[in-house]
Amino acid sequence: MTKALNEALERLSLTQRQAVEWEEGAALVLAGPGVGKTTVLTARIARILESSRNRNFRILALTFTTKAGDEMRSRVDELVPGLSERTVIGTFHAFCAQVLRQHGSHLGIKPDFAVYDQDSDREELLKDALRAAAEKGQSVSSDEVRWLRTIDRLRSNLVSPAKTAGHFRDEEMGLRASLVYSIYEEALRARNIMDFNGLILDTCRLAHQMPAVAARIRQSYPYWMIDEFQDTSPAQFRLVRFLAGDDFRNVFAVADDDQIIYQWAGASYRQIVAFRDRFKPELFQLVENRRCPPAVVQIANNLIAFNSDRTPGKAPLLATKPDDGPAIHFRTYGTEADEATGIAAEIAEAGLKTWPHTAVLGRTRAILTPVVEALRTAGVKAAIVTRRDRFISPQFVWLQACLDQGLRPTDRQVFIAMTNAANLIAGIELDASLLEAEAEGAGHSLLEHWAHAASGLGNDIAGKLAQFAYRLVQTRSSWRSLVAEALVWLPETAASSEGVESDAADDKAAWEIATRAIRAEKGGDPDLAELLQGIALRPKEPPPDPDSVRLFTIHSAKGLEFEQVWVMGMAETVLPSWQSLQPKASPAELEEERRNCFVAITRTKRTLTLTRAEKYRGWVKKPSRFLEEMKLPEEIQR
């Protein structure tokens, strides 16, 4: 056993150690905030790898975010260096992409499929398909792209086009939805494109229609771990069931029913109940909170006890940190503008050294915007942290699209994106539609014809872009060296454009982070299709400024921790939200708002400051009911 693993095991509590040493069969670990769930998962993976050094099986660990997967992989590698190559650690979508690359041919899916991660791309795909269907005499129009949201809901619930009509009360509407859905699926398959829902849906289809594939996965991965199980959608849980078959039970799930805050995406307490019914797991509960001060643990326990959708008999969190003095503060302001300036003033006064360790949390992005402006006015570096799903500089939009075009030479949408981005980079005006028509007449590929047109403009930057495209067309196998060179010269093309230079630098950092993670995930260099699929599935935001205060929506802050946490907007109709307080709202909506508050207050390691304004947008707001439910001491509320 490695020294690092031995030391990690010695630091575990009794319950953590029991979970880590669990051998065969299903297990459910109820893990509240700050109790070391990632420590348990990584120690268990490392222990199994260490005890089976001479065996060839791999461990499958499914996470909810790419960041969680990257962190888990890194920790495993620290505990048992060199053995993390025997793991597949990543999101459900990344794992499904891998399965479909290897076995998708059974469904007619080619391994070099593209992943459309943007709604705008999918909408254009459906519009094109509807236009083509109308030209062939089908009674459809491009306006029916509005059905895409409905199609997404059907796909997320694993409903096929053939069964769509049965999900509508109005027969004619159901038949219409079924037709548009069929056209969309045919367009995806014809162009070898997957969308996010399709990755899950088609892997479910594969496991259901080809039991031998599911059996092979069980043989290759005899141990499965699932992180943040409470955040899984019904489709993701059905995927687990389909892959497990009737007899496989080595599923180790970590969940917390008090942190279900993605109900709108299908997450539900029912998934945890269904897991217990289906797999009959051994139950472990981790309660020793090692993150928060005792006073915060107490108010968190008080608050969440008001929810009913929880595991019966669940024990409260237990504080393990010493009481180092006042940890909870409360502020009341006159208006939301006063709240913003008040928060900013206190953070500014605390000093530069505290800023990187300070977070401001709000229910929505809108409530955070005045605070980030007030912080900057006070001379404090600050930014609202949000997930970025695409590159924002034309340089890296072009690079991604050009590589995509090299892989899929007939993809019209990618060609349009590439041409438009090149126009912005070089200050040229090439028309994608015109080039497309000319390429067809000349018998050229779209990328080759674009390169020919760009190289003849007498524009130095356009010439460099064209040279990259020419070389990609002529020797696609050299794409790695082409990309390595482009990462040097491409950002330099933004130097003369105000604002774009920093965007390109941010995108370069995001590209390099993504490619390193993809390489680590694969355990070697990816091919071009794997790289592009991985980039499509990963966030594109750069690393945060190390000297800045970060502001998050509560959803964005889940899984994070900070020395000082401010939770603002503690008022009725703000937190809890207006929607959850309406007469027709279900009790589950208010419970989800309470879980949001629970997640927010348990992000802190040292101090928690709760704030509210008496008026928002001119309307008087009562204090949030959650303040009373927390049972804050009276001296704090004064």
From TrEMBL:
InterPro entries: DExx_box_DNA_helicase_dom_sf, DNA_helicase_UvrD-like_C, DNA_helicase_UvrD/REP, P-loop_NTPase, UvrD-like_ATP-bd. Belongs to the helicase family. UvrD subfamily. Its EC number is 5.6.2.4. Keywords: ATP-binding, DNA-binding, Helicase, Hydrolase, Isomerase, Nucleotide-binding. GO terms for molecular function: 3'-5' DNA helicase activity; ATP binding; ATP hydrolysis activity; DNA binding. Residues 294-559 form the UvrD-like helicase C-terminal domain. The keyword Isomerase applies. It catalyses: ATP + H2O = ADP + phosphate + H(+); Couples ATP hydrolysis with the unwinding of duplex DNA by translocating in the 3'-5' direction. Pfam families: UvrD-helicase, UvrD_C. This is DNA 3'-5' helicase. GO terms for biological process: recombinational repair. ATP binds at residues 31-38. Residues 10-293 form the UvrD-like helicase ATP-binding domain. SUPFAM superfamilies: P-loop containing nucleoside triphosphate hydrolases. PROSITE patterns: UVRD_HELICASE_ATP_BIND, UVRD_HELICASE_CTER.
